[in-house]
Amino acid sequence: MIEINGLSKKFKKNVVLDNIDLKIEKGDVVAIIGPSGAGKSTFLRCINLLEEADTGTIKIDDLQVDVNKKTKKDLINLRQSTAMVFQQFNLFRRKTALENVMEGLVVVKNIPKNKAEEIALVQLQKVGLAERVHYYPKQLSGGQQQRVAIARALAMSPKILLFDEPTSALDPELVGEVLDTIKATALEGNTMIIVSHEMNFVKKVANRVLFLYNGKIIEDGTPQEVFGNPKNERTKEFISKLAYSIAPEYQI
Amino acid sequence: MPNIFDFKLVFTQIPKLLSYLPVTLEITVLSMFFGLLLGLILAIVKIKRLPFFTQVVSIFVSFTRGTPILVQLYLTYYGIPIFLRYYNYYNETNYNLNSIPSLFFVLVTFSLNEAAYNSESIRAAIQSIEKGQIEAAHSLGMTFFQVLRRIIIPEAFVVALPTLGNALISLLKGTSLAFVCSVVEITAQGKILAGANYRYFEVYVSLAIIYWVMTIIIEQFIKFVEKKVIIPD
Ligand SMILES: Nc1ncnc2c1ncn2[C@@H]1O[C@H](COP(=O)(O)OP(=O)(O)OP(=O)(O)O)[C@@H](O)[C@H]1O
Ligand SMILES: [Mg+2]
Fold first, then answer.
1. What is the third-level CATH fold of B23-160?
2. How many domains does chain A have?
3. pTM of this prediction?
4. At A74, which CATH number?
5. Which ipTM score applies to this complex?
6. Distance between CA atoms of B190 and B213, rounded to whole angstroms?
7. Which pLDDT tens digit goes with each residue over A72-106?
8. Separation CA A172–CA A249 (nearest Å)
């Protein structure tokens, strides 16, 4: 279970996250939607401490971290409990797909190389890249790179997966394969937070949708509630605009 | 015909010079090694903008770049003994000034000089790495030193390779100044040989050949490494 309390973050005078509270149950698939600049990325990055929040506590199961009083050990522990999939994939360029997935297992978890390789191969197979394990990132398509990144995240067996617009940097024809992979990950029972603009995907895969606006969660409910019957004016406006947008269709 | 230029001697004395090549190589390799290590540390100090240390590094780099290596050699050669004398005087210690091998002064000077130049190339290389990979490594739970060793150094090395290769070649040639600290490497040995037979021109031709060949070998080696580290499309 993940519990976030009083999370706030300012960049200079710009309040990006405003005292956010959020509780997520194990197995939840939470989608965060909201306009550009709302603070979605910042929120995810504060959860794994890539960004330093000004105040707040983050609790993942028994590990509770106050962002103001965190030790080096807290930092490493929290990052090991979470795993992030980035918009730009962020694979290690000088490592093959297999080495990318093994890296955290060997270096962070101290798992022996042969065992780490086994785990990595299983994960790469799950994302459909068994044939590409010895390819370097630049030899892979964007969709394949993002699937390697997902395998890298899953291999660490984190308590929560954080996806920051995992398909926004992809050519439209490659979006589907990545969404399929994320959906499969969700169906396996992983707890995850997904920031995404793929509304059709969000409707089908998430069991909870948050609308983030000006650093606050102003709408929180099931996809049916948030998309079908939004309570807040801002949400209504955002969703009605979406209806006209030409967001790529995603079929399941 | 008078023997104005002894062509044969140019080649016959090469082996006598080469017997001091190990000294030249020792200075080159050790100075490059320490220069890279210290250069990396200086680069990190600058990138992390550590207060106070950053200023110290800036002054050190500026000084090193702004003074001739010959002058720097004299500064360490005369400066370290003077420093030790003061140290002995104030701490009532009794370090023997004559026990310091001449090679030490040379290694200190060249290592510091390399460190100053390399720190700038290493810093530029590190800052050219895209941030995403580093963030990904941190998000896996790696510590700063793990990220440095596993991700940053291998990436930066490839970027900095041509510059560091040039630095190595300059260093090799620069070691010919080691004689000012009374270290005998190939150039100093050449001077000694010529002092005995007065064939100065011949010995410098021999030396030129040796340095040139060594430089070509290093260039080929760097090219080989560059090919090795490239990831095919
Ligand atoms: N490192 C930073 N320094 C200063 N301001 C920042 C920084 N990162 C983000 N911001 C600001 O914080 C606000 C929220 O940014 P964030 O990237 O979290 O938005 P977002 O909801 O992810 O938007 P998008 O949909 O465009 O990705 C923006 O106004 C942005 O300009
Ligand atoms: Mg964002």
1. MetI-like fold (1.10.3720)
2. 1
3. 0.90
4. 3.40.50.300
5. 0.93
6. 17
7. 999 999 999 999 999 999 999 999 999 999 999 99
8. 10
